[in-house]
């Protein structure tokens, strides 16, 4: 659910979950596979063509993930749960995602919750992207009332709509990376701004949320993932897509967040967590290298070797 600018040090912008543009890759990555999926533009840059079979596996994995988890599809498994109780089977990586979701839910006093979907829809962030509020803001259901997490399943105890947007796209990027690694060891994946770099390094600037020509720092990304989030990328009326699940109301004090982590799922979820926890607490919860910009322009971050911050 994150949305933020990352800027290539070459010349082009990359806007997560908004108007997406590809990042220029290493000169060794001469081939690009581009396609639309899960509501965003994907670019996969590689030194050689991706074999047809590997590409087909990637498309199939994305389609299966979307059909299971997308709240924007009426035929998805999670959409069916808005009408009835039921159980979803979980793969090992899905279980790991839900475990981390629960840890973040507890650490943020339920502010970050996969049960925030009703509040998002009421605000206008619905399947039709109406961007028109249809109901008053309300708190999300309590996790323990609505959900039970098992080692290979998620049980929904009351009809409800789930939204895994804070971590789901990152998890899917990790799955695509795993598939690619079966045939290619050097690549860059850009899934609408969730970036994973393998076998080489990229230097990616962190775009100021109020000035696309200015970078607040640079991330050195190698065999890791970089994600960012900013409310101004998806804003309508007095609302944006980063909502406090305790109230159903959009946050107001953070202008942008960025995280560098070992996996795209971790980086993705950490960018949202930073709207509710300080960098040090987020880093203890999710191993990452975090940067936060407050709405007053103040930067908060932890010292690390892979993030150069121009403070």
From TrEMBL:
GO terms for molecular function: metal ion binding; transferase activity. It catalyses: L-threonyl-[protein] + FAD = FMN-L-threonyl-[protein] + AMP + H(+). Its EC number is 2.7.1.180. SUPFAM superfamilies: ApbE-like. Keywords: FAD, Flavoprotein, Magnesium, Metal-binding, Transferase. Signal peptide: none annotated. Gene3D superfamilies: ApbE-like domains. Its cofactor is Mg(2+). It comes from the Bacteria. It holds the Pfam family ApbE. This is FAD:protein FMN transferase. It comes from Candidatus Mycosynbacter amalyticus.
């Amino acid at each position: 659910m994150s949305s933020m600018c990352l800027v290539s040090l070459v010349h082009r912008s990359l806007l997560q979950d908004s108007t997406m543009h590809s990042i220029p890759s290493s000169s060794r990555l001469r081939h690009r596979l581009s396609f639309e999926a899960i509501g965003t533009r994907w670019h996969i840059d590689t030194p050689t063509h991706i074999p047809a079979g590997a590409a087909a596996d990637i498309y199939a994995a994305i389609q299966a993930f979307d059909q299971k988890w997308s709240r924007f599809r009426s035929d998805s498994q999670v959409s069916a749960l808005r009408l009835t109780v039921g159980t979803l089977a979980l793969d090992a990586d899905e279980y790991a995602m839900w475990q981390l979701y629960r840890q973040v839910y507890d650490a943020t006093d339920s502010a970050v919750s996969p049960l925030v979907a009703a509040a998002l829809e009421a605000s206008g962030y619905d399947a039709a992207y109406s961007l028109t509020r249809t109901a008053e803001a309300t708190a999300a259901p309590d996790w323990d009332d609505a959900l039970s997490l098992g080692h290979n399943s998620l049980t929904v105890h009351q009809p409800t709509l789930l939204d895994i947007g804070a971590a789901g796209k990152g998890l899917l990027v990790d799955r695509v990376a795993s598939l690619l690694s079966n045939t290619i060891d050097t690549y860059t994946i850009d899934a609408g701004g969730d970036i994973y770099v393998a076998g080489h390094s990229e230097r990616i600037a962190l775009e100021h949320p109020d000035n696309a020509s200015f970078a607040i720092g640079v991330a050195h990304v190698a065999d890791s993932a970089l994600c960012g989030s900013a409310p101004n990328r998806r804003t309508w009326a007095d609302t944006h897509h980063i909502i406090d699940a305790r109230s159903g109301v959009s946050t107001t004090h953070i202008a942008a967040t960025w995280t560098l982590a070992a996996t795209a799922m971790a980086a993705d979820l950490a960018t949202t967590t930073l709207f509710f926890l300080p960098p040090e607490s987020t880093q203890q919860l999710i191993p990452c290298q975090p940067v936060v910009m407050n709405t007053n322009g103040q930067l908060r971050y932890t010292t690390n070797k892979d993030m150069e911050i121009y403070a």
